[in-house]
Amino acid sequence: MMSRSYTNLLDLAEGNFAALGPAGGGGRRRQGSFGLKRMSRVMTVPGTLSELDGEDESEPAATSSVASDVPSSVAADRMIVVSNQLPVVARRRPDGRGWSFSWDDDSLLLQLRDGIPDEMEVLFVGSLRADVPVAEQDDVSQALLDRFRCAPVFLPDHLNDRFYHGFCKRQLWPLFHYMLPFSSSASAATTSSSPGDGRFDRSAWEAYVLANKFFFEKVVEVINPEDDYVWVHDYHLMALPTFLRRRFNRLRIGFFLHSPFPSSEIYRTLPVREEILKALLNCDLIGFHTFDYARHFLSCCSRMLGIEYQSKRGYIGLDYFGRTVGIKIMPVGIHMGQLQSGLRLPDREWRLSELQQQFEGKTVLLGVDDMDIFKGINLKLLAFENMLRTHPKWQGRAVLVQIANPARGKGKDLETIQAEIEESCRRINGDFGQSGYSPVVFIDRDVSSVEKIAYYTIAECVVVTAVRDGMNLTPYEYIVCRQGAPGSESISEVSGPKKSMLVVSEFIGCSPSLSGAIRVNPWNIEATAEGMNEAISMPEQEKQLRHEKHYRYVSNHDVAYWSKSFIQDLERAYATEPELETDSADELAASISSLDIGDEQSESTHRPIGGS
Q1: Whole domain around residue 419: which residue ranges?
Q2: Residues sharing a CB contact under 8 Å with residue 432, sequence separation 6 or more, in sequence order
Q3: Overall number of domains in the chain
Q4: For 345-398, how does the pLDDT look when each residue is reduced to its tens digit (9 = 90+)?
Q5: Is there a domain that residue 185 lies in?
């Protein structure tokens, strides 16, 4: 049974689509947006798309069959990267007059440029992590465009709150991490800020769709649909492909989900389950970190839309309205150069020397997590407590350093978790602490990259006990820091052969890629405790062998490899896509209707960049 592409989603979006142009074709670019000339797109490189190495969840995550040194044929085109937030840090100047901007070097979106050909222009579309008054938005937009090739999206405060905290963080984020609503009361859904504590909130969903339309309108301002690629990122913008496909029928659209995708038994509880699936199927290529996430998505398409996937020469595709939607399985990597540069900084060497003195004679286990209900920080503390109790040889010797990055969300569940963590730290230090020895060092503040690198360097083992996590790059960062920077001969470097140990939850995306890690079920406190003990008690030679294996994988599958592979597959997915048949195109266009849900938009959002 074939389902309609846009039904029920664009119904929610207020706006006159007729004014934007007809449903089919590429559409015309707005005059005065950029005025940049574009070369025609030329396809030159044949090839196959990424392969699936396994057919069950016990097998490792599949990686791309496209080698990282294969030249891309997209060099004459432009990539528009769309995400909820721009990879830019905005600060109000000390005198209060104007803004200063800088790149966010830790942003994955910025780092993915390394996998894009130098000749290919990259333009970012997203929101700023700063409140910019309406009167200043045009000037800020022009400054970001001129200096950073960024086009900011400004959402009204009330819309952003309903979109981000209301739907993204209280509906999608918990559901995608396997957390179902606890209450069926409407009041719980509308007055509480805790995720998963109330029933589906229709107004929050409408805000989500409307916010996605804001992002769509910004893309329309800057796009050249005949030459540009659009790469949409993460669960915040899953409705965006519908708007893009409706406006530009032949546009090349890719989407990558950075969170888990839940099993069909979980996902089917979402009242707008079909709308989101249909929206994603308006892409040419959909990417996931692991085979399990992709398998769950395919299962949902089969059970809820009646669409079955086909596999041909390692290529997984879904036939949807005369188009083949490709499925890409490729775990993201880290930016090797940035970490290695940090390893050479003088501040890192100074901080490393301090930490080596502070923890002299101690075995350091390290956790680096966001303060989040799904990160399993308290489970880690309970397991460490169990290890000290059942293996008393580590009392006075083993230290768990837990870095908790500031929370991104808010709510009662988070407050409860924070209280539990604080209580566990007090109890463990009270029961096992000695003069000059605290078994748990809890760091609840912003930690600079340099300081984090220093902690990675001294840690004998990194422990990740998240109960659900899309990818989690902490183990990758740790492995690179334990290896050290090439050619570095700092006197503060860890002496001897390179080694590292990992205890990782089986529920995180990076787990299948780390075959030498000790995998644990974080809910099993005793087994996790034994995993910690095994990791720090393992013979040195075995630690070295596991480290070498992990380092080879991490260094060969960095963020540039991931980005290049996705772009190549997006190009090939589009190249193999036939022209849409007339009947299919007519049916696709006819499936769209509109429903006015109110005028939430400020005038500034309708002005082209650089226009009046």
Answers
A1: 336-557
A2: 385, 388, 395, 439
A3: 2
A4: 888 889 999 999 999 999 999 999 999 999 999 999 999 999 999 999 999 999
A5: no
